[in-house]
Structure formats: structure tokens, C-alpha cells
């Protein structure tokens, strides 16, 4: 059984760095360089008085923060889908597949097989980096909570749950869409603006739906029954993104996506694009590795660490509704310590050089 307590590997828990004595720093800034708005932990003097967090202490795990590369990755995935759809062979393939298997089977089995395969391939790659020490050493500097590593026993528990949700939740829900609202699988493939518009329309539904349901299941009356299981990992792994109850998988993970798809009814290829890109996103952001060039894993990792902030998938509603204040303050404090450490080592190097 997976215990509720965090997993500590190697016996030693890294101690948080002591807060610097200096109180002469300028006002704290958030990750975007703007002033952090509300900060209960920071008096006017600017010294951090809040709780010490053993989280993202490695500066290398914070290189990938709200950066341009994530947007490049998103636009790249959208553009790749558009480019594939523009190839003459793609249209011919859709016509022949539809003639051979029928729209219903492509909507049901095509969706389930492709989405499950993408999830497992990427999840297994992350799993290899978690469990093989040689591979792990290559990405250890990007691990947000480096003291915590999952065991094989816990991984088995997670994988059983992933399979259960894919078979008993994803498949029936995909069946309902295929049966009652099947998507076009013909060679009438969408152009650039439709591809772009459907992606962001679905993303809007995902942001609004996931944020709302996620905050709801943190309500004390629902948390233990619905959501506590997903929070057993305070330092998650990629496959733990669907380590959750079946109710959470229906209403929180799949429901908002299904609503966007049913409302917009795009070509089947765009539904697969959206589904797979969200899978890549959720696997990456649960991996506990914040690797430059991939999606920013800090936001959701903080949710698993701290429980009470960062409910949404993009951070937009968290920004608007102010449910990420401590997250921003702590990142600002870490950045200030980085700068302080850099200034101190520069002063020491100068003193040594001039002695
Ligand atoms: Zn949660
Ligand atoms: Zn999560």
C-alpha cells in the first residue's frame, strides 16, 4: 500500500537553506519580474518571514519557469498536426480508414488506442529516469524535490490504477462520445485557423472546468472520498497524473476535455491533437522534473507539495483569483537568495584576488 507520508530516499533529507540575515533587499519580485501582490509573510522591510520550504531549492530546477519554450512546444504540436493534415496522403489515409473501419470504430478504438499509447510511451520514458540510477543522474539537477523518490512497490500501485482508469473510465466515456456525438473522420481536414481555434477553445474549457472541479474536490466534504488519493504523492511522478479515484478521473480529468470536444465538434484529428497534448502536459507537470524546453512543472508540483494553491492547468485562473500567492512569494524568495549567494561569492572572489 502507498503510505500517506512522503517518500524519503537515501536516508538524508536535505535541510532547507537558512534565511539570509540581510534585510536590505529590494521589494520581492515574482517570476515575471512584477511585484508580488499580497504577501502575508513579508513585512515592509522585505525580509522573508514565512515558512521554509524544502521545495525547488536547486536553482537548476527553476531555470524552466514560465518561459518561451513551453509556448514554442505548444505551437509546435499544433503546427505539426496542421502540417500532417495538409499532406495529400493524410486525406487519402482518412478516407481509406473510414471506408475500412467506419467512423464509429475510429472514434472509439482509434481514440482509445492512440491516446493510451501516447500516455504509456511518455510515462515509461519518465519512469526509466525515475528508476534507473544512471539515467536519473542525468536529470537529477532538474528534480524539484530531489530527496524524494518513488519505490517499485509504489510504482506497481500507480500503474494498476492507471490501467483501471484507462479501461473502466476512459474507454466508456470515449464510447459515449463515439456513440452519440461522433467526430468527422473524412478527408475534409481543417486548416490553420480552425486547428488553432479548436485548440484554444478546448483549452479554455479545460482551464475553466478543471480549475472549478479541482477546487470543489478540495472541499473538506469531498476531499477524502474523491481527491485525497491523488495527493498521496507530495512529490509526484509522471504516471501519478492519473493515479486517482474513478470519480476524479470522470469529473476532473476527462469531463472538461469532453465538454470542449462535444461543444466544438472538431475533426477527429484535432480531438486527438488536444487529447495527446494534454497528456504530454500532465505527464510532464507531474514528473517532478522541471527540464528546460518542456512544460513548466513548478506550478502543479507546488500544488502537490503545498495542497492549497495552483489549482488550474495553465495558471491563468490562479492568477486572476489569487490562488498562487505563496507560490509566487516563495519563488521570489528563492530568486533573492540566488542573487544574494551570487553577490556574496563575487565579493569573496574579489577579496581573494586583491589580497
Ligand atoms: Zn488537488
Ligand atoms: Zn496532480
TrEMBL record:
Q: Where is this region: Disordered?
A: 1-49
Quote the biased-composition stretches of kind Basic and acidic residues, using this chain's numbering: 32-42
Recorded source organism is: Cutaneotrichosporon oleaginosum
- The stretch of residues making up the signal peptide is none
Key word Transmembrane present: yes
Keyword terms: Membrane, Transmembrane, Transmembrane helix
Any one GO cellular component localisation term in the record: membrane
**Which stretches are transmembrane?**
68-85, 106-129
Protein name per UniProt: C-4 methylsterol oxidase
Amino acid at each position: 500500500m502507498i503510505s500517506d507520508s512522503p517518500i524519503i530516499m537515501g536516508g538524508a533529507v536535505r535541510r532547507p537553506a537558512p534565511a539570509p540575515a540581510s534585510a536590505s533587499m529590494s521589494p520581492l519580485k515574482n517570476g515575471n519580474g512584477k511585484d508580488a501582490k499580497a504577501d502575508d509573510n513579508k513585512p515592509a522591510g522585505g525580509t522573508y518571514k514565512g515558512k521554509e520550504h524544502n521545495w525547488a531549492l536547486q536553482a537548476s530546477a527553476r531555470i524552466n519557469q514560465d518561459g518561451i519554450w513551453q509556448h514554442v512546444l505548444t505551437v509546435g504540436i499544433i503546427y505539426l498536426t496542421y502540417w500532417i493534415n495538409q499532406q495529400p496522403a493524410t486525406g487519402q489515409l482518412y478516407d481509406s480508414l473510414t471506408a475500412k473501419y467506419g467512423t464509429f470504430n475510429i472514434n472509439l478504438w482509434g481514440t482509445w488506442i492512440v491516446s493510451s499509447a501516447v500516455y504509456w510511451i511518455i510515462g515509461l520514458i519518465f519512469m526509466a529516469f525515475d528508476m534507473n540510477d544512471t539515467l536519473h543522474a542525468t536529470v537529477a539537477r532538474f528534480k524539484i524535490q530531489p530527496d524524494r523518490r518513488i519505490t517499485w512497490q509504489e510504482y506497481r500501485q500507480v500503474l494498476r490504477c492507471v490501467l483501471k482508469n484507462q479501461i473502466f473510465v476512459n474507454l466508456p466515456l470515449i464510447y459515449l462520445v463515439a456513440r452519440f456525438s461522433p467526430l468527422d473522420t473524412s478527408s475534409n481536414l481543417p486548416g490553420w485557423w480552425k486547428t488553432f481555434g479548436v485548440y484554444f477553445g478546448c483549452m479554455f474549457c479545460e482551464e475553466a472546468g478543471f480549475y472549478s472541479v479541482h477546487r470543489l474536490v478540495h472541499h473538506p466534504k469531498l476531499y477524502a472520498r474523491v481527491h485525497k488519493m491523488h495527493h498521496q504523492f507530495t512529490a509526484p511522478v509522471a504516471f501519478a497524473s492519473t493515479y486517482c479515484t474513478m470519480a476524479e478521473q470522470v469529473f476532473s480529468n476527462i469531463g472538461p476535455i469532453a465538454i470542449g470536444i462535444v461543444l466544438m465538434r472538431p475533426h477527429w484529428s484535432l480531438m486527438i491533437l488536444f487529447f495527446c497534448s494534454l497528456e504530454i502536459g500532465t505527464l510532464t507537470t507531474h514528473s517532478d522534473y522541471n527540464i528546460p524546453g518542456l512544460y513548466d512543472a513548478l506550478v502543479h508540483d507546488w500544488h502537490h507539495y503545498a495542497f492549497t494553491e495552483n489549482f488550474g492547468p495553465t495558471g491563468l485562473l490562479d492568477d486572476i483569483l489569487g490562488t498562487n500567492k505563496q507560490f509566487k512569494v516563495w519563488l521570489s524568495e528563492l530568486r533573492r537568495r540566488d542573487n544574494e549567494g551570487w553577490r556574496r561569492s563575487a565579493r569573496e572572489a574579489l577579496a581573494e584576488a586583491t589580497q
